[in-house]
Design a protein that fits this description.
The protein has 180 residues and is mainly α. The chain has nine helices and no strands. It has two domains: 68 residues; 84 residues, no CATH class.
Length: 180
């Protein structure tokens, strides 16, 4: 949301608090604003509409976060797309990136061996690959969400491009140098 949206945000939050027979002081309202400020005003109002119909108690910021997660493709939905590509994109196995899959799905697919691994797997092994894909997809998705929310702690995926020695990773920190 933009700073100009705070007045409307304040009105909606206080209206919701009245419905739930709660009082919002300035500190609590500021905490809600901080945790929800990356939402658009339209999405925030849609979320409030939904939460007002489904929550018995005053929604907390985590309720909004869970709602946002529900709007993203699940690992199972991404896996269906992977299987579809494995069935129909056999000439393009080896390119590493599967057009039509999200960046997250492509990274998870690479982590389990790539489209070639899925397409060439024995049917009895497909359920294992699906389970592993779902685990990796969910882990990477959670990490991405945290990195996007708190960019100061973000890991630069571009720094690792293959096998790298610990010395190179440390880059001279903690006493490790190229001469040691």
């Amino acid at each position: 949301m933009l700073p100009d949206d705070f007045k409307r945000f304040n009105a909606v939050m206080n209206g919701m608090a009245k419905i739930y027979e709660r009082e919002l002081d300035a500190v609590v309202l500021d905490v809600y604003w901080l945790s929800l400020s990356d939402w658009t005003l339209t999405d925030f109002e849609s979320a409030v509409r939904h939460l007002m119909r489904t929550c018995r108690f005053m929604p907390r910021p985590i309720d909004f976060s869970q709602l946002a997660k529900a709007g993203k493709p699940s690992a199972a939905e991404a896996w269906i797309e992977v299987l579809d590509h494995a069935r129909h994109d056999s000439p393009n196995f080896m390119n590493g990136h599967v057009n039509g899959l999200s960046e997250l799905a492509n990274r998870a697919l690479r982590a389990i061996g790539g489209l070639h691994t899925v397409a060439m797997s024995d049917i009895s092994k497909t359920t294992f690959l699906e389970k592993r894909f779902a685990e990796v997809y969910d882990q990477m998705g959670e990490s991405d969400e945290i990195r996007d929310s708190v960019p100061g702690i973000a890991f630069d995926r571009g720094t690792l491009s293959g096998p790298t020695s610990i010395r190179n990773l440390l880059g001279g920190r903690n006493g490790a140098t190229d001469e040691s």
